[in-house]
Structures
1.
Amino acid sequence: MGHAASASCLLPKRATGSLRCTFVDHRPNFNYNGDDDNYLRILMTIELVALIGALAVIGLVFVYALISGSPPTPTSPRVLTAAMRLLPRRLPGDQPGSIFELGSGWCGMSPALARAFPEHSVIGIEVSPLPWLVSNLIASFKRNGNLSFERDDFMRRDLSDAALVVCYLAGMQMKRLEAKLRAELQPGALVLAHTFAMPGWQPLDRVYADDIYRSPVYLYEVPPEVSGAVAPASQTATESSTSGES
Ligand SMILES: C[S@@+](CC[C@H](N)C(=O)[O-])C[C@H]1O[C@@H](n2cnc3c(N)ncnc32)[C@H](O)[C@@H]1O
């Protein structure tokens, strides 16, 4: 048999006469052991559990995207840069009102807002459990004392204390949100939205991000007539030219 060959068979013919031959067993060292079966079974179970876990996580994110009407697509760094440039250095109000990011996804713009406005509480509200968990994890590394993430439906939150509301939501959601903001926000409060505009509102200022979509970023201010659901903001606010607009 090929595997059971002796050393002399493998040496050139010239050398065999002068060498002592020792038997070398070339058979693979394969000792079948019942433990191997168990080992494979454990390995396959771990792989199966990992696969089911990964599918469950993807499924959960997907289901919440369907329920909420918007997937947790993050704001790109270029849009974030444009958004941060559009915001004033100081937010309105005698008291530092809260900053809300409505639908904060995987932590969204909240950490940048927390750094830019250290005297304000920045609260990211996210309904989808996994992005919310990841946001909390990221926040624990960032160590911004004024940054927190809450798992909730922002439509159920009272936003009357807001100095600034930030959002990146699908167009249909913006319609529902518009009525809520109109009813709850104080005069002078700011609203920053990107990609989808606030329907019926005239932006105070607008820039386009330096990305391939030229994503629009809008800054709105709640005028006195708008707060308390009196009149649509489009009748009252004015659009100004922007230094960063291209
Ligand atoms: C397009 S993502 C934006 C994420 C983040 N703001 C950013 O800019 O990176 C929209 C997020 O809003 C969340 N969302 C949608 N409707 C919501 C609601 N009613 N309450 C809380 N979160 C909501 C979605 O789960 C999703 O994560």
Note: Residues 1-9, 229-246 have pLDDT under 50 and may be disordered.
2.
Amino acid sequence: MQHLISKLDSAAFPPNTPSVVDCRQFLSEYSDAVILHFEGLMDKPENRYARTRKINAKLVKLERQIFLGGYERAFLLFMDSCCFCKDCTGDRETCNQPRMARPAPEAMTVDVYTTVRQFGFNINVRTEYDQKMDRYAFLMVA
Ligand SMILES: [Zn+2]
């Protein structure tokens, strides 16, 4: 597992994501995850990044609390790309926030639409900015 987690260190940076095989193995090692649903209206598309950055920073704190609570494998899949760097290099070696970076579920081969619908959550493709967005993060627990 530790080996896989270190491989996942680069997972926040497509195209440097793990292989499909590694993603499947990672996901198969968890039996419990928390689905976190974020709804929101976005009046301007450029506001999306500030909002995502704020939420992802809180999610990293949540992951840490769960870890400290005894779930040493707690690992978060962000609700969107991490957005911490204004212009991320896309490379873990040179990213300004490598300790904060986590992959989006899609980067880990998670089919977000099918997964959340299985648990009764709403998710639809939005075509206009006046439509409510549904974003999902996954906190892999144990
Ligand atoms: Zn970065």
Note: The chain has four helices and three strands.
3.
Amino acid sequence: MLKSLLPMSLLWARRGRRTSQPEMRIPGYTLHEELGRGGTAVVYNASHKGKACAIKLMKANPDADASARMGREIKLMRQLSHSGIVGLKDWGEVQGQVYMVMEKVDGETLRNCLMSRRLTRPEALRYCEQLLEALSYAHSQEVMHRDLKPENLMVQRDGRLRLLDFGFSRNVHQNTFQTLDSSVAGTPAYMAPERLMCINTPASDQYSAGLIVYEMLTGEPAVPAGLDMSAVITKQLQETPPSPGTLDPSLPGWVDALVMKLLAKRPEDRFSSAQAALDFLRGYSEYFTLQP
Ligand SMILES: Nc1ncnc2c1ncn2[C@@H]1O[C@H](COP(=O)(O)OP(=O)(O)O)[C@@H](O)[C@H]1O
Ligand SMILES: [Mg+2]
């Protein structure tokens, strides 16, 4: 299907030792070093007509599911155009393997950023605003992200947050029924309780955003790393973390209220939409835009 959309002819070549996957040669593109990798894909620094871009390829020997996932990611990303979301520039397929070309983000993942330093409170709130903006836009285009986590957000050198990796995204109207053992797609440590029960709603992205904001404000994940899967699932389903305000009493009450509402266990107890959460936050924007 993708092939018919794309006339580009592609060649494989063995080059480089950073991954076991042969690098793809795409006419017009030059592949350079690896920028990062996630559970399913490797992303390379690349160039096209002298301009930088990033090319996402499936890891070696992708199964039909992985290729279908990238096909879906391309389809959904084509609907999105927002400064807070990494833009899709091109895509294609070779020997049954799909690739996509994106804008290259000049910066680091929020995960690396959180590992290297503690964010200031105004920084954390500004990133929260940018995340909710991107989310609100995606939802307005009927796209739920479904895998929000610090690895799927990048902090640009200019301080802007960019959302990426729509590999597990879905249209809000798409009725996906999933089983716990094989295909609850996403990352349990950042997954809303209802997603673990196979219920799909855009409000799940609010919950994941709440966990990210919690981590940005407190420096600690609400669901500690290293827990086994059943402990993670128990935490998401049953345990509410101590509110950021109890860990830091100097935190204004409205910040605590925002985070804990995003983290409500029942989707109906969260904000009515990501936009409503954004409106709430913006009601206090003088608090965090005036501070360094
Ligand atoms: N457009 C981009 N610019 C720069 N780095 C990127 C870009 N897209 C992804 N990356 C890096 O590659 C990693 C993996 O990409 P991602 O799309 O999340 O793959 P996966 O679907 O396997 O999780 C990201 O965590 C990030 O470090
Ligand atoms: Mg990812």
Note: Residues 1-22, 178-182 have pLDDT under 50 and may be disordered.
